[in-house]
Structure formats: structure tokens, C-alpha cells
Amino acid sequence: MHFTLYLSPQTPGPEMDGAIMEAAVENAILADQAGFRGIALTHHHFSNYNTYGNSFVFGAYLAGQIKQAWLLMQVAVAPLLNPLKLVEDANLLDQLWRGRFIMGIGSGGSPLEFEGFGRDPASRGELTAEVMDVAYRAWKHKPGDLPLEYRTRHESGLMRGRIMPGPYRKGHPLLARAALSEPGWADAGRKGHPLFFGRVGLEGAVRAMKAYDGALADAGWSKEHVEFCKEWTTIQKTVLIAEDDDTAQQLIDEPLNNLQALSKAAFAAYGDEQRKAVTGVSGDDPAAFRKSFVEGATIVGSPATFIDKLKQYEDAGIRHVALHMNFGAMRPEVTRQTLDLFIDKVMPKFS
Q: What start and end residues bound the annotated signal peptide (predicted)?
């Protein structure tokens, strides 16, 4: 089993942004030294959900400091991006990371973020298709070709030159598909993309891998490519580890309450129904929020409990887990305790 450190630290406010990003960089370097397979960045704006905001710039900053791990974009929200800018930024990260880069593509969903960029979240699927159609055309465009003319419902232009830089890998950077439902899981397999998924429990993971593995096999991909896809297919889990289960359950109360408040504030203008549709959780009852979030999205407990849970996912065919260790404006020392315990007591059982 492989592990990725999922960096999406929430922030209580601008006065803490610098310290939170500094701690995220320190944790990424430590994870890289410990043998983590990847460092994952998320793509969020305006909501206090992602402190660094511009994941492409942050990924470029990390490139010179991470020596072995790959960079995973989990995920680039295509509808919010100019397609040529998406290609340009992805190519730059592909070069800086020397091909150790996989960009997941997703359609997003937070109305706050879509509104900020003048997009309609109800059209996110169509917008994603439009942006990616232009992106693939741009990756195929060669010097000397006729100018590339493009139009989406939000962007238009004429590219007479070329995308600079070109990608490190032939054609375009490695791509993955983010999906939370069976049609998306199967589509990722048919197209031969690694699958990024989360917010499902063990039963959901079994269903996801069955749909994905079946589609991979039916599509006729080579054995080598199938192995690559399975190695980089990741389930994301929000995690907290303490020396014993009781302490872990006590420590998670503060970040869960913070996360509930952040979620409520981000969707205050859009209604609880929209909030549940995007996040999977809603309501003001802390106990209900905790139950809904913990059952599918988290692993909380002692190292022994954590090992047992991970082995269940391993038996279900999960080879790679992205671990979200800093959530709900968590205190840095709690995040660091989780990372240290994972490296010292959990990781050796799966190496």
C-alpha cells in the first residue's frame, strides 16, 4: 500500500495563513523523507477551506524541496480555469517535477467558488467538457500549425504561438479522473486514468473498485498500464491518530466543530440543501455532523486501530490512500502528532 499526504489545511483567518502554510511545507518535506509516495494539493478559493489558494503556484514552490514523492493535483477544477492557462500551468508543473506529476480533473461544486469566478455550478459538467476539449486541442497543437481558435461559454481566444513550456511527458502530463459515483468510476477505467475518490466507507470502496477494475479490464489496457492505474488510484481519508482511541476521539471534537462552522459559513448564502449536495453533510447538530462525516470520510484512533482499518481497505483492493491530516483549522501540534505516529508506528506495517 502507498500513501500520499493530502495538503488542504483550513484556516481560521488571514492572521494564521502564513504559519499554516509554513507547517504544511514542513510536513510535506517530512513525509517525503519518510517515504510517502505522493504530496496532494487541492483547488479551493474564497471559503477558508484551502489556505494556499493557488495550488499550481504552491506546487511550483514545493518542486525544489520534494526529492522523491510525486505531486498529485486532487483536483484541478476545470470549470473555473481558462483552458490555455490550465495547460500552461500543468505543463510547467510537469517540467518542474520531471514527470512526477498527476493532475486529477474534477468538476467541483461549491457555489461560493463558482460565483466568485462568474460560473454557474449547475453547468459544471458541461463546463468541464468544454474546458478539457480545448485543453486536449492545445496539447496537440504544434509549432507551425494553424492558429488555435477556441471558445467556451466563458472564454475565447486565438493562440498563434505555442504553449510554453511543453510538457515533460510526451503529449501531456499524466491525468487522473476525480469521481464520487459509479458512472465516473467506470469512465475513469474505460479511459485508462487513475481514479481519485473519497468520502466513502469500506462498502463504498468495494463498489468503486469493482466498477473501476471491471472497466479497466473491459477496455483492454496493457498489463503495465493497468498496474500503473491501480498504483495511483487513491481513496482520500481524513485522519487523526493518538496514542489511544479515547484520546483520538476527544481530539477530533475541536477540528470537527471548526469544520462544521466553516462548512455552514461557506454555504450560508446558498441553503442547506445545496450544502448537503456538495459536501454530503448538513445541519447544525454537532453529533449528527460528526456521525455523517466520521462514518464515511475518516479514520480516527490509535496506531493499532489505524492499522486494522487500513488493512480492511487493502483487502478491498485499495493500494493507495491520501491522508488528510490537517483539517478544521487543527492545531499544528495535533497534525504533527498524527504524522509522527503514522510514520513511526503505522507505515512500517505496510512498507
A: none
Domain presence at residue 99 = yes
Q: Which SS3 state, helix, strand or coil, does residue 3 take?
A: strand
Q: Of 33-37, 135-139, 274-278, where does mean pLDDT reach its minimum?
A: 274-278
Pair 278, 109: CB distance under 8 Å: yes
How many domains are contained in the chain? 1
Q: For the chain, what percent of residues have pLDDT higher than 70?
A: 98
Q: Is residue 103 a contact partner of residue 174, using CB atoms and an 8 Å limit? A: yes
SS3 187: helix
Q: How many CA atoms lie within 13 A of 310 on its CB side?
A: 30
Burial class of residue 228, CB neighbours in 10 A (0-12, 13-18, 19+):
middle
Output the domain CATH number for residue 327: 3.20.20.30
Task: State the Cα–Cα distance between residues 150 and 137, nearest whole angstrom.
Answer: 9
C-alpha–C-alpha distance, residues 76 and 217, integer Å:
27
Full residue range of the structural domain in which residue 107 is found: 2-259+290-349
Kindly report the pTM of this predicted structure.
0.95
Within a domain: residue 282? no
> Is residue 272 in some structural domain?
no
Tell whether 274 is covered by a domain: no
